[in-house]
TrEMBL record:
<comment type="function">
    <text>Lysozymes have primarily a bacteriolytic function; those in tissues and body fluids are associated with the monocyte-macrophage system and enhance the activity of immunoagents.</text>
</comment>
<dbReference type="InterPro" id="IPR001916">
    <property type="entry name" value="Glyco_hydro_22"/>
</dbReference>
<comment type="subunit">
    <text>Interacts with ASTL.</text>
</comment>
<protein>
    <recommendedName>
        <fullName>Sperm acrosome membrane-associated protein 3</fullName>
    </recommendedName>
</protein>
<feature type="domain" description="Glycosyl hydrolases family 22 (GH22)">
    <location>
        <begin position="101"/>
        <end position="119"/>
    </location>
</feature>
<comment type="function">
    <text>Sperm surface membrane protein that may be involved in sperm-egg plasma membrane adhesion and fusion during fertilization. It could be a potential receptor for the egg oligosaccharide residue N-acetylglucosamine, which is present in the extracellular matrix over the egg plasma membrane. The processed form has no detectable bacteriolytic activity in vitro.</text>
</comment>
<dbReference type="GO" id="GO:0001669">
    <property type="term" value="C:acrosomal vesicle"/>
</dbReference>
<dbReference type="InterPro" id="IPR000974">
    <property type="entry name" value="Glyco_hydro_22_lys"/>
</dbReference>
<dbReference type="Pfam" id="PF00062">
    <property type="entry name" value="Lys"/>
</dbReference>
<comment type="similarity">
    <text>Belongs to the glycosyl hydrolase 22 family.</text>
</comment>
<dbReference type="GO" id="GO:0003796">
    <property type="term" value="F:lysozyme activity"/>
</dbReference>
<dbReference type="GO" id="GO:0036126">
    <property type="term" value="C:sperm flagellum"/>
</dbReference>
<dbReference type="GO" id="GO:0007342">
    <property type="term" value="P:fusion of sperm to egg plasma membrane involved in single fertilization"/>
</dbReference>
<keyword id="KW-1015">Disulfide bond</keyword>
<dbReference type="InterPro" id="IPR019799">
    <property type="entry name" value="Glyco_hydro_22_CS"/>
</dbReference>
<dbReference type="InterPro" id="IPR023346">
    <property type="entry name" value="Lysozyme-like_dom_sf"/>
</dbReference>
Length: 154
């Protein structure tokens, strides 16, 4: 079964959630947004092996905080759950950046992860792949990541 990211629930940040629904398949406890049609419209496949690598990356990049912003010494920012950098991937205050994801960095702060995951997928297609993220290189790369989804139905 393919691995999917669906819009991230606010419960993810409260840590009173079960990790599996939080990133693998978001289930809303209040019943809102459960519609199969909405789910199909928001489903985005993560084309990285293992596919649940994004969970490890999101944890170590931002602590699952979709609103995280980190300011770098060079004036660039890292934004959102994956801490995507404005030097190359998104548009911030500097109009002279490549903006390869064709989005504003502030859009990466949206709890609906669809656009953020699409941008992250573009980054994984870069020659550095997941190695573009320091958090990945230091905490996830070469590790057994199956524990991140232990007990989940994938």
């Amino acid at each position: 079964m393919p691995f999917h990211f669906i819009s991230l629930s606010r419960k993810l940040q409260s840590r009173q959630h079960h990790l599996c629904p939080g990133l693998v398949h978001c289930h809303h406890a209040d019943g809102e947004g459960d519609g199969e049609e909405q789910e199909k419209n928001e489903r985005v496949e993560w084309p990285v092996s293992p596919p649940y690598a994004g969970i490890c990356l999101a944890y170590f990049a931002s602590g699952f905080n979709t609103g995280a912003v980190d300011h770098e010494a060079d004036g660039s920012t890292n934004s959102g759950i994956f801490q995507i950098n404005s030097r190359k991937w998104c548009k911030n205050l500097n109009p002279n950046v490549p903006n390869l994801c064709q989005m504003y960095c502030s859009d990466l702060l949206n709890p609906n992860l669809k656009d953020t995951v699409i941008c992250a997928m573009k980054i994984t297609q870069d020659p550095q792949g997941l190695g573009s993220w320091e958090a990945w290189r230091h905490h996830c790369q070469g590790k057994d990541l199956s524990d991140w989804v232990d007990g989940c139905e994938l």
